[in-house]
């Protein structure tokens, strides 16, 4: 791991360069600490009651700002900033603040909306699946399986039906064949979902490779998402798992007799409590949670989504459980983006879709840090990955001898062997095909470098970062010392204690104010 550590030492060396000095006059000195005008302006702009064009308002604010800084100085004199609790709280905030700067919110929002927009439609498709055998695969392990997938594709394009080809391959165990009525975003591997949602009804895909094998799809339909329905039901269950014709007919008759009671005007909820064999929902008058297409037995959900009006009741509907009488309780249309945003973000963050989520940040940082990729060096690694899986000892032993430059960032060259060692030490991919594994880890490798580079120059290149961190630092101290000197005492004493404290602070700590700068503050606002 030595080389990987050394590369970040190199990063540290380049980020210690001093930024160009900017004119930032001192507006005030409190207890020996100089306060630049930029900090004063940053704070004052947050107070909507301050009119910088009004001399009296500005003078009043200067007095408040001075007293605020005196209290912070008093807290430091009491060494509150050295307490473990304070240090932990500041460290937590620093981490959160860094993460907020090390991101591209617009890019993330765009990526989230791509997935959200997919929720507006529900595809139904046929799927032929050729499964890989083995946990780690190189190119030679995939050739025969691909040949089988392309042969099946050619049969379909030659005129055979997708269904017929799928069933024949399933019959001789060459592949699996399934019909999928409904699918939603984030329920499939990304590469498969991307293909499905790019197709139109009637389209047939060429073989698609995933970490599990090769896939052929035929898109049968793409329907608008009807949202979610909520129903109450009364279940008359079969007496056994494999009911006879007589048992089915008796169950039907029992359900129909309950239906007649509803038609006659009896209360649905009371009938559910009295007769439904779904004892959990029966206690709630038969009421079930909201559900979407694909979450219930097909006849059940077809009936639920066919209702036109709240309160509509169905005739008995047969499923494998028995007969159900349904009553529409509510219907939810499309879920607003704001309600799904946190779920989508977390789902993408912890999966392979993080590359979509963070692509904007990755590309921005690569451009900022002069990213240069050397494809010839990467091709050499790909040829090695055609023979050995990148996590194998054989790959590593050969890879660590390869010294061509693979990538350059901020004038720093990273050789092939540095990446090989990183890839070996950090198994950050779940991909089972060698080239996919290497590509994903490479993308993470570059992201980690540019993120660390950016993290190290936050204080140098992002004035707002320093301001926010300083504001939080002062804020914690102000809270702690105010609680100690004033707020921890009875409320009726606060005004008197505050006045005494301010007087004490002004006598205890020296203060100088640069009124010349303050009087000309407007010229610094541009």
Explained architecture:
- This protein has 526 residues and is an alpha+beta fold.
- 53% of the residues lie in helices and 15% in strands.
- It contains 23 helices and 13 strands.
- The strands form four sheets. Strands 4-3-6-5 form a four-stranded antiparallel sheet, sandwiched between helices. A three-stranded antiparallel sheet has the order 2-1-13. Strands 7-9-8 form a three-stranded antiparallel sheet, sandwiched between helices.
- Helix 3 (55-77) packs across helix 21 and helix 4 (84-101) runs antiparallel to helix 21.
Summarize the helices and strands and which ones pair or pack.
Blueprint: H1 2-14, E1 26-30, E2 33-36, H2 37-44, H3 55-77, H4 84-101, H5 105-118, E3 121-131, H6 139-157, H7 162-171, E4 176-180, H8 190-198, E5 208-209, E6 213-224, E7 228-237, H9 245-263, H10 268-275, H11 279-282, H12 298-306, E8 317-319, E9 322-332, H13 337-349, H14 354-357, H15 359-368, E10 372-373, H16 375-385, H17 393-399, E11 405-409, E12 412-415, H18 416-425, H19 434-456, H20 458-461, H21 463-487, H22 494-508, E13 511-513, H23 515-519
Antiparallel strand pairs: 1-2, 1-13, 3-4, 3-6, 5-6, 7-9, 8-9, 10-11, 11-12
Helix pairs in contact: 3-21, 4-21, 5-13
Keywords for this entry:
single chain, 526 residues, alpha+beta, 4-stranded antiparallel β-sheet, 3-stranded antiparallel β-sheet, 13 strands, 53% helix, flat
């Amino acid at each position: 791991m030595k080389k990987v550590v050394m590369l970040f030492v190199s990063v540290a060396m380049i980020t210690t360069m001093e930024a160009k000095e900017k004119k930032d006059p001192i507006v005030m000195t409190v207890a020996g600490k100089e306060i630049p005008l930029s900090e004063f302006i940053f704070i004052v702009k947050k107070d909507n009651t301050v009119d910088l064009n009004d001399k009296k308002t500005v003078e009043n604010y200067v007095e408040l700002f001075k007293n605020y800084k005196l209290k912070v100085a008093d807290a430091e004199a009491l060494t509150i900033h050295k307490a473990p609790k304070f240090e932990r709280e500041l460290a937590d905030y620093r981490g959160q603040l860094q993460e907020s700067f090390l991101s591209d919110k617009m890019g993330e929002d765009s990526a989230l909306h791509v997935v959200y927009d997919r929720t507006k439609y529900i595809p139904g498709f046929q799927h032929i699946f050729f499964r890989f055998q083995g946990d780690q695969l190189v190119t030679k392990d995939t050739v025969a399986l691909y040949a089988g997938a392309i042969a099946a594709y050619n049969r379909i394009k030659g005129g055979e039906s997708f269904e017929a080809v799928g069933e024949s391959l399933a019959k001789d165990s060459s592949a699996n064949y399934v019909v999928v009525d409904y699918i939603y975003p984030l329920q499939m591997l990304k590469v498969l979902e991307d293909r499905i949602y790019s197709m139109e009804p009637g389209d047939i895909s060429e073989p698609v490779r995933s970490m599990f094998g090769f896939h052929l799809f035929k898109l049968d339909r793409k329907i608008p998402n009807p949202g979610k329905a909520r129903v109450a039901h009364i279940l008359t269950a079969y007496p056994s798992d494999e009911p006879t014709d007589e048992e089915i007919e008796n169950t039907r008759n029992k359900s129909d007799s309950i239906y007649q009671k509803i038609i006659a005007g009896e209360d649905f909820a009371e009938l559910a409590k009295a007769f439904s064999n779904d004892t959990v929902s029966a206690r709630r008058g038969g009421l079930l949670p909201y559900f979407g297409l694909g979450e219930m037995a097909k006849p059940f959900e077809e009936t639920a989504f066919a209702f036109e009006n709240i309160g509509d009741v169905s005739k008995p509907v047969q499923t494998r459980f028995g007969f159900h009488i349904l009553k529409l309780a509510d219907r939810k249309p499309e879920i607003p983006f704001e309600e799904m945003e946190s779920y989508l973000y977390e789902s993408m963050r912890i999966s392979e879709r993080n590359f979509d989520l963070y692509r904007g940040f990755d590309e921005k940082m690569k451009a900022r840090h002069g990213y240069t990729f050397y494809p010839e060096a990467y091709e050499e690694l790909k040829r090695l990955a055609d023979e050995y899986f990148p996590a194998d000892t054989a790959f590593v032993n050969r890879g660590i001898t390869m010294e061509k430059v693979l990538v350059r960032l901020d004038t720093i060259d990273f050789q092939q062997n540095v990446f090989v060692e990183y890839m070996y030490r950090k198994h950050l991919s779940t991909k089972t095909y060698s080239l996919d594994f290497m590509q994903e880890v490479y993308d993470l490798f570059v992201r980690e470098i540019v993120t660390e580079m950016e993290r190290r120059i936050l204080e140098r290149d992002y004035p707002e970062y320093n301001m926010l961190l300083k504001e939080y630092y002062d804020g914690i101290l102000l809270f702690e010392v105010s609680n100690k000197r004033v707020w921890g005492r009875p409320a009726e004493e606060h005004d008197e204690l505050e006045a005494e404290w301010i007087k004490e602070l002004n006598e205890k700590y020296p203060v100088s104010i640069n009124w010349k700068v303050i009087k000309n503050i407007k010229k610094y606002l541009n």
